[in-house]
Amino acid sequence: METKLSRDYAGAKIGMWLFLLSEVSFFFGPLALYTIFRYRHPAEFRSASTELNLTLGTLNTVILLTSSLFAALSVSAIKKGKEKASALLIALTAVLGAVFLFIKYIEWSAEIGRGFYPGSLALFERGKGEVLYFGLYYFLTGMHGAHVFIGVVLLSITAVLISRRTVNTNDYIKLENSALYWHLVDIIWIYLFPLFYLIS
Amino acid sequence: MEYHGSYLKGGPCLALFGKELKYRGVLSWVLSTDHKRIGVLYLIAVVSLFAAGAAIGFFMRLELITRGPTIMTAQTYNSAFTFHGVIMLFLFLIPATPSVFGNFFLPIMIGANDVAFPRLNLLSWWVYMAGAAIAVIALVAGPADTGWTFYAPYSLRTGAKVSLAVFAVFVLGLSSILTGINFVTTVHRLRAPGMAWFRLPLFVWAVYATAWVQILATPVIGVNMLLVISERLFGIGVFDPAKGGDPLLFQHLFWIYSHPAVYIMILPAMGVITEIIPVFSRRVIFGYKAIVYSSLGIAGVGSMVWGHHMFVSGFSYEAGVAFSFFTFLVAIPSAIKVYNWVGSMYKGSILTEPPFLFAMAFIFLFSIGGLTGLILGALSLNVHLHDTYFVVGHFHYVKFGGGGFGFFAALHYWFPKMFGKLYNKKLANYALLILFIGFNALYFPMFVLGLQGMPRRYYDYLPQYSLMQIISTVGSWVLITGLVLMFGNLIYALFRGKDAGPSPWRGATLEWQTPSPPDAENFEAQPKVERGPYHYDGI
Q1: Euclidean distance between CA atoms B328 and B458, whole angstroms
Q2: Which of A23, B347, B384, B407 shows its CA 20 to 30 Å from the CA of B216?
Q3: Chain B, window 459-518: residues with a beta carbon less than 8 angstroms from a chain A beta carbon
Q4: Once rounded to an integer, what is the mean pLDDT over residues B469-487?
């Protein structure tokens, strides 16, 4: 029996949206913890927030927003039959995602270098609110980073598929769904950025 | 039809459900994207793990036959109840009915030839098997001793290997989400012409409602398990009071999933019962829409009752009142179903075949489970009964008497369709009788013990509890005998059973219009649906 390939576009999109819904539910838990702990320790959350690198955070936000724009442009390019442009744009999206991860790595290294990591003495001396802030910071940006990583892999595969014309102007649901996933990754960051960087 | 029978002469063979051209031998099963083969793969895995869970339970009961150490140490006992819970809930009950019978029958019942995403379906089986493997490794490598609930802060501090068991739960959750996504999309996109929403068989409605719970609630426990792992590996502090964290928040996040998970276990089983009763009463189901809305109602309201697991945890009285209220509220849609089942039998011409008798056992046991749930949902009584054997008795009546017996009922109802063979009905009835006696002897004394104050999960007990503990242990022997007889009868039928024919129970849903077992494409031609699923005129 030949593998029955689904050619049901609406079905494929419903499936993707359901998956995104479960992703939102995934982030609900730690964000609920954030809300409760920030309510309990408002001052310490603010002072801990000043320890983050706002410049790098803002830069990363700009990078992720731009990458999301490229993903959207890639989809509209393939709809208009510009497959080469579409492949280039989605590859560019993946590259920006990788840059985001690299900057995040620099940020984490700097923070850990200064002694801000779970269980560190420096944090312990600054009080429980800051311990929780950094615990959640590492957990949430870590989870988000994992999503960015998966997204970069996914987008790179899609770029290859377009260049091989497996994904083409008549059959581009894989590109649309990967772009949808990327937009979700972007939206989650749009929430994380103000919650961690902008509260001071 | 005889053509299919000849496939099966001399027992089940690898060519079940038509030929798979791409792969041969075992690979034609474990790499198949046919929903029927995947359903059978789940069946094999789920029943094997059920056997393992039951064996652990059997030895736990044996340990409790006398006071003090009997056959195991206290630490072994702690690991035993942990893994009995993990296996029975995450590996057996949650996937049992939706993944086995949902996979096999949901597409056929809506007139489709597969699920919406066949390859994703195969992936979710593989993810499930990976989760099962991790759980087994955790069991061998040094089992957790936290209980299946992994409550913080103990789960953060204990020296036992918790991370691996917790990771298994995360992986199993992923499989459950993928299955849920597949089923919701399938029901939306692949219904046959004429299969309007209110012509869907009620089993499909039940699995559909369940799938929504799987999609929305499962990620919450997934992330909660990752938080526990992060706590253990890095000490991020969110559940650790020493660092300002709050272990109660673990309980909230845990039950936000795990209470709805009870409905993941019970709703599909209720769907099975709803299929069985009209067929064997030869009457249209009473209150079709009421059952649909009660399924959706259970899925909805059931998501707001998680706090009743935490009445004595120290949260506010107001929260307790609210959760108690919703707990009583969720009993209404469950009761609606019971009334509708009984109403459907009224003035029917009832055939007491094994599936029907299993359904009766379900209704009886589930009703006891449900009613004792209301006792536990009352704030004042809960203070006395919390964490006693009463709770253990209650959830075994709901989960085993409900979810488990629903699974057994489904097995007896659909076995002839899945494998084309009829089992020995008389033996099936005797097995049910033994199961039923054993079940009540095993679990009913727990209500008495709980009222007398026997705490759950204890390795030892005071002399006044001896009699009930012994009755309960003897009950476990009877129950195991019934299980062996029941599964033995079915396995024997696989090899030596008589040919079942396409429709041994004369059901009106679409699966009975296919040959037994169904062919690779399910239907020879696209079926057209022109009537409801429970109209038996001329069938």
Answers
A1: 29
A2: B407
A3: none
A4: 98
Structure confidence at residue B8 (pLDDT):
41
Instruction: Check B238 against A26: CB less than 8 A apart.
Output: no
A136 interfaces chain B, CB cutoff of 8 Å: yes
Q: Is the peptide bond preceding residue B143 cis, with omega within 30 degrees of 0?
A: no
Reported confidence tier of residue B11, pLDDT bands at 50, 70, 90: very low
- As assigned by CATH, the class of the B2-513 domain is mainly alpha
* Average pLDDT score, chain B: 93
- Residues B188/B199, Cβ–Cβ less than 8 Å: no
pLDDT at residue number B1? 33
Mark yes or no for CB contact A36/B20 under 8 Å.
no
Phi-psi region of B142 (alpha: psi -120 to 50; beta: other; left: phi over 0): left
Q: Do A25 and B216 touch (CB under 8 A)?
A: yes
**HSE (CB half, 13 Å, CA atoms) of A183?**
17
pLDDT grade, residue B20 (50/70/90)? Answer: low
Locate the domains of chain B by residue range: 2-513
Per-residue pLDDT band at B317 (split at 50, 70, 90) = very high
Q: What is the 3-state secondary structure (H, E, C) of B66-93?
A: CCCCCCCCHHHHHHHHHHHHHHHHHHHH
Model confidence band, residue B9 (pLDDT cutoffs 50, 70, 90): very low
| pLDDT tens-digit readout, B89-148 | 999 999 999 999 999 999 999 999 999 999 999 999 999 999 999 999 998 887 899 999
* Virtual torsion, Cα B318, B322, B323, B328, nearest 10 deg: 140
Is B210 part of the contact surface with chain A (CB cutoff 8 Å)?
no
Q: A25: distance to nearest CA of chain B, Å?
A: 6
Distance from CA of B500 to the nearest CA of A (A): 26
Q: Which residues 6+ apart lie within 8 Å of B134 measured at CB? A: B164, B167, B168, B171
Domains of chain A: 69-200 (1.20.120.80)
B32: how many CB neighbours lie within 10 A of its CB? 24
The two tokens of residue A2 are 């030949």
